[in-house]
Design a protein that fits this description.
Length: about 270
Amino acid sequence: MSNNNTYVVFIVGDSYLPGVIALKRSLDLVDSAYPLTALTCDCSVSTIETLSGAGINAIAAEAPAIPNSIRDLNIVAGRPRWNQSFAKLSVLALTRFDSVVLLDADMMVLSNIDGLFDAPSMSAVVAGRGAHADWVDLNSGLMVIKPSHALYQNAISLINSLDENLLSNFRDGIGDQDIFQMLLPSWNSEKALHLSERFNAFQDCLAMYDSSGYLNFKDVSVVHFELAPKPWAYRIRDWLNAVRRALHYGSLAELTALRRYRALLPKA
């Protein structure tokens, strides 16, 4: 395994800063040998300084120009934030690193996952498949990438090739995850690139998986807090939703994950 590897987290603006700090702390707790690098987009000076103080190197993400047709589609679909997500694709061009493990800013690492750097490029998880048997596409929350300028240019070419006819397939909006999927059209059938769900376990699936034996909580390596709002902004009703799932499935897995995660978040 090369020493020239890094975990990468993409952060837009300042609102996800608590999640990035918690992610870094979780990596430290499992004795990861590799650093966490933040790809930043529209972050304040204060956030950049906080990242640096936490031992996280910040690299400004290169936001590619996207056609107005895509921007308008995401706005109409109620997902204008997805227009900023395309800057996440700049991870493909981080050729200063041999291998990158991309992690979302709302994730918590529970066990050492350094071995993922040796996985093939474009390895990812069909996250949530245990709850949705018809799901077959990758989730870009966790991906293994061997950066190359050719790969990045392919992504940019894909974006620019999306005419109105092709965009008609994305009525609910289009973001970075769709481009990652389209970069390798055969991904769904290339099982060697499919990582176990333990590397990207959705928060609201934890209790069901643990109760059914599909994925015991003790075997989960990465929890993905994919729901909104995020745990650092929880109110009573959000905790109640988690309690309802715990009671329904007879498992404390989700509540345990939330408790551990809250302990990692910076104090307000």
